[in-house]
Amino acid sequence: MKLITTLILSLAAVFSLTENPAPATVNKAESQIRWEASKVTGTHWGYVPIKNANLDVAGGKITGGSFDMDMVNLTVEDLKEEPSKGNLTKHLKSDDFFSVEKFNTSTFKITEAKSSNGTDYTISGTLTIKGISQPISFPAKVTMAGGKMTATGQITFDRTKYDIKFRSGNFFENLGDRMIYDEVKLDVKLVASV
Questions:
Q1: Domain chopping of the chain, boundaries
Q2: Strand partners, 144
Q3: What is the pLDDT of residues 22-61, one digit of tens each?
Q4: pTM for the structure as a whole
């Protein structure tokens, strides 16, 4: 009986020493999400503001987290002249693309963060756009300096899996140089105080 009690107390002590994940505050002013999409005749890019973001950190390593993207305030940065810039911004927010009136927020939620060295990660999670959720994984890098954790990575997703099929070569024929590629890139940088 003494042996069982000793084992139970030992296990309780071990579990009490295990560090629980704590949410790290993400600084939205220092963080950013840059989008990029290409067509036959070129590339467009811009930013999607971060609405909310958090990283769960335990023992100096990311264990979870999420971020919400503000689709209403999505920007186009490669075009400088009007009306081209405004027209593309408006079109991206329309039902041809992100249906922003119905779906004003897109979300990524981490389901698993694997790292062998605390710097190089494979992040797996769920990306939700237009109310459609799909699993996705991507490589990420994490650095620590001056009480701040900086996580960077590139999410690449197929827009057609989120019901964004406008001028997709997989759904429309004879598009020629009007075709828009299905792959969209999100360069994510999250800076958090830890």
A1: 20-193
A2: 149
A3: 788 899 999 999 999 888 788 999 999 999 999 999 988 9
A4: 0.84
